[in-house]
Amino acid sequence: MYILVAADHHHQAHPRILVRMKSPIIFIFSLLLSSCYAAVQDFCVADFTAPESPTGYACKKPATVTVDDFVFSGLGIAGNTSNLIKAAVTPAFAAQFPALNGLGISLVRLDLALDGVVPFHTHPGGSEVLIVEKGTICAGFVSSANTVYFQTLEKGDIMVFPQGLLHFQFNSGRILAEAYASFSSASPGLQILDYALFGNDLPTELVAATTFLDTAQIKKLKGILGGTG
């Protein structure tokens, strides 16, 4: 491949110079493009036969992936709210929806019966965006500076809960409430404060020393939430 290069204006006697390019630019660009394309991995559908690691599940072999891996129908059915907190959370995390593995997104459905509540809890692995589909939900979170942000949400309202901060949802209306939440992680994790304090075998005396609650109340809550000690 040849290109014409004009002579320097200080040397006008010289004719134009033919310069041969060693490698055509278009050819090099096409090589780079094809190399980048070959390196792209479109998805990493979870392989549940392999153990989960802190970075997620191993990938299924592409030949074994089907369209069913990319479809999840579990959020179309209301959860069972016949429990202590009168609430049901139906997850669509990587563990239930294998195509989400490695994508940094997930969803849940939240059903709250009358007076239903999702107690103070955190998601260590991701931030949450909640949208109310039905009913009225009082929701809020506490910042690391112990500032409280809460609001009563109606149908169509959206609220965000930053990653790792304690937050709650409570049905403050007169009908069943329904909401959906998305997360910035395929496996955001969940730790409910009440169960962390009273649903384990930490000795009552230690719980009392760290929470300033009296031992009788702690033992009562341990009895309700399944704790011992």
UniProtKB/TrEMBL annotation:
Keywords: Apoplast, Disulfide bond, Glycoprotein, Manganese, Metal-binding, Receptor, Secreted, Signal. Residues 73-219 form the Cupin type-1 domain. One of its GO terms (cellular component) is apoplast. Disulfide bonds join 44-59. SMART domains: Cupin_1 (SM00835). Mn(2+) binds at residues 121, 123, 128, 167. It is found in: Secreted, Extracellular space, Apoplast. Pfam families: Cupin_1. PROSITE patterns: GERMIN. GO terms for molecular function: manganese ion binding. SUPFAM superfamilies: RmlC-like cupins. Residues 1-38 form the signal peptide. Oxalate binds at residues 123, 128. Belongs to the germin family. This is Germin-like protein. It comes from Carpinus fangiana. The lineage of its organism: Eukaryota, Viridiplantae, Streptophyta, Embryophyta, Tracheophyta.
